[in-house]
Q: What sequence folds into this?
């Protein structure tokens, strides 16, 4: 598929999903910049819903990097254990907190280059934080939803997050780098799920090469996909 056709379909993707998700904020709850950092680190291999249910128990008193560093040894691991991989996540959060205190006076820096030098910060985490805190879009956030949807939609053939980010950045204007990942993440959670994508209520089904509605009734039934009429291009709110 040519780059031109990919750009055209990305434009349609953005136009149709903007009315649905354009005003939806990031789903990790936070009140301070470092709470966002902690929440994004905790969201690795964990749903935002679970992260929010865990952090609401301690974000009222753990607000700044210094608060986390003042915890007794092992206490943070206990607090975040339900999010999974809690030892590594606690190490990353405390490492990021220490780095911010020692090198940036406790303030979350505003550049990708500085952020990725901190423990717990890869390009994904750094891009999320930059976009949410400072409205700076220096790259595309690539998580599991973006990997899945960008391949299903034919926006890339790559599987590695860095290569996917490069493809999306090359075919999308910088002003849309945040939106394309944000929309894919929300659409991946609400409509284009991993196991049973709801193509029958997807507003971009007509431009998707992986549209399940094209399957035969027998195969669709086997996959658990309901055969329903698709209304293309209508800005209907996806069911959550």
A:
């Amino acid at each position: 598929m040519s780059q031109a056709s990919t750009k055209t379909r990305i434009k349609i993707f953005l136009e149709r999903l903007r009315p649905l998700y354009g005003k939806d904020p990031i789903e990790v709850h936070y009140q301070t910049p470092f709470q966002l950092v902690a929440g994004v680190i905790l969201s690795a291999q964990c749903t935002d819903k679970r992260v929010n249910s865990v952090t609401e128990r301690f974000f009222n008193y753990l607000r700044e990097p210094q608060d986390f560093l003042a915890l007794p040894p092992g206490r943070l691991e206990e607090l975040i254990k339900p999010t999974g991989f809690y030892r590594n996540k606690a190490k990353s959060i405390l490492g990021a907190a220490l780095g911010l205190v020692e090198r940036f006076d406790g303030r979350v820096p505003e550049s990708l280059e500085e952020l990725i030098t901190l423990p717990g910060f890869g390009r994904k985490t750094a891009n999320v934080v930059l976009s949410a805190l400072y409205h700076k879009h220096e790259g595309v956030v690539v998580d599991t939803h973006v990997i899945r949807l960008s391949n299903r939609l034919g926006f890339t053939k790559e599987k590695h997050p860095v290569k996917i980010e490069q493809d999306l950045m090359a075919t999308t204007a910088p002003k849309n780098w945040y939106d394309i990942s944000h929309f894919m993440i929300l659409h991946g959670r609400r409509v284009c799920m991993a196991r049973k994508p709801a193509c029958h209520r997807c507003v971009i089904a007509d431009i998707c090469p992986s549209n399940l509605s094209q399957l035969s009734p027998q195969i669709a039934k086997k996959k658990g996909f309901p055969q329903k009429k698709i209304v293309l291009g209508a800005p209907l709110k996806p069911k959550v």
